């Protein structure tokens, strides 16, 4: 019996080739697409479904599902009700590590882009409005000496810390906000003595730049709401490369419009791919279409890891990256 894979996304060839070697591959778009997902999952025709953030596996779908596993082509897996999957005996895989550097790079790009007003300058150039160097043209903020607050201190948060230190930023972090977790010096490894652990509330008030690196869970939904935005320093910057719903985007629009925040850099949106009303009209925001992991090499590695996860789920081997091990 060869393994049966259903892929709901256009998995890069590096991963697709592995799936084809291991079994039969059906493309979701040939059998009804996302609208048919609950039926496809329940059909018993597939061992593993390969998917990404656009495919939602809720408790109702998972209770009826006849699957061995779900291989998510992403590190975040808020699109899958993992408790319901576990209860149904369905393994869930994701793609940690391979996208850490690429995503941390995008966070730095947004930090630099917003503080140095790169997007405003880019737009000015294209509009033919650059009339020559001037002492006060698009004057921004230094990152050296600025306090960067990292919400969450997992793989990506740490990679952002390393980069920020190289730019001369002071790095404070709050693991697992809004709750707390003590990170030991041993666990900090190379970062010990170079970064400071603080409480979430303190970090919100100290950070010149607040960057989000938490998974989306019930605890982190609207972690940054109107109250938190009001407690952030006047003239500070918010960066989100995590998940849109971690921020109350309408409240953010207000905080940007009023000038309380200097700016924001966003790679993710609350109601992706849409943006909150008013966001696109603001000058002091740099927005990207969820490009965190978007390099050729990273996407190829994600595809290989996704395929390895899927194959192990189908054949009963060790799953390289499983978020709900048996
Ligand atoms: C992308 O957002 C991911 O979680 O990999
Ligand atoms: C991860 O280490 C976290 O506590 O955020």
TrEMBL record:
InterPro entries hit by this protein: D-isomer_2-hydroxyacid_DH, D-isomer_2_OHA_DH_cat_dom, D-isomer_DH_CS, D-isomer_DH_NAD-bd, NAD(P)-bd_dom_sf
Database matches in Gene3D superfamilies: NAD(P)-binding Rossmann-like Domain
Annotated ranges, domain D-isomer specific 2-hydroxyacid dehydrogenase catalytic: 41-324
Highest taxon, organism lineage: Bacteria
Keyword entries, A-Z: Oxidoreductase
Organism lineage: Bacteria, Bacillati, Actinomycetota, Actinomycetes, Micrococcales
Residues covered by the D-isomer specific 2-hydroxyacid dehydrogenase NAD-binding domain: 109-292
PROSITE patterns, alphabetized: D_2_HYDROXYACID_DH_2 (PS00670), D_2_HYDROXYACID_DH_3 (PS00671)
UniProt keyword annotation of Metal-binding present: no
The protein's name: D-glycerate dehydrogenase
Family stated for the protein in its record: Belongs to the D-isomer specific 2-hydroxyacid dehydrogenase family.
């Amino acid at each position: 019996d060869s393994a049966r894979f259903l892929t709901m996304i256009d998995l890069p060839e590096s991963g697709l080739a592995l799936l084809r070697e291991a079994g039969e591959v059906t493309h979701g778009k040939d059998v009804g697409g996302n609208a048919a997902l609950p039926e496809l999952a329940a059909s018993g025709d597939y061992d593993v479904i390969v998917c990404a953030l656009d495919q939602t596996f809720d408790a109702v779908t998972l209770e009826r599902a006849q699957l061995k596993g779900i291989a998510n082509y992403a590190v975040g897996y808020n699109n899958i009700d993992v408790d319901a999957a576990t209860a149904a005996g369905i393994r869930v895989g994701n793609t940690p590590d391979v996208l850490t550097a690429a995503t941390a790079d995008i966070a730095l790009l947004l930090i630099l882009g917003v503080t140095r007003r790169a997007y405003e300058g880019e737009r000015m150039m294209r509009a033919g409005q650059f009339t020559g160097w001037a002492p006060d043209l698009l004057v921004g903020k230094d990152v050296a000496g600025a306090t960067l607050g990292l919400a969450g201190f997992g793989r990506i948060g740490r990679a952002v810390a390393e980069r920020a230190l190289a730019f001369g930023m002071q790095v404070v972090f709050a693991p697992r906000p809004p709750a707390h977790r003590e990170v030991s010096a041993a666990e900090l490894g190379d970062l010990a003595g170079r970064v400071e652990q603080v409480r979430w509330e303190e970090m919100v008030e100290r950070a010149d730049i607040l960057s989000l690196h938490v998974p989306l869970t019930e605890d982190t939904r609207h972690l940054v709401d109107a109250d938190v935005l009001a407690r952030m320093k006047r003239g500070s910057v918010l960066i989100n490369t995590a998940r849109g719903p971690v921020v109350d985007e309408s409240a953010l629009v207000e905080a940007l419009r009023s000038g309380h925040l200097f700016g924001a850099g966003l790679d993710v949106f609350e109601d992706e791919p849409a943006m909150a009303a008013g966001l696109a009209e603001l000058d002091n925001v740099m927005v990207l279409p969820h490009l965190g992991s978007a390099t050729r090499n990273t996407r190829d590695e994600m595809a290989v890891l996704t395929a390895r996860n899927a194959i192990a789920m189908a054949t009963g081997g060790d799953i390289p990256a499983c978020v709900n091990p048996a």
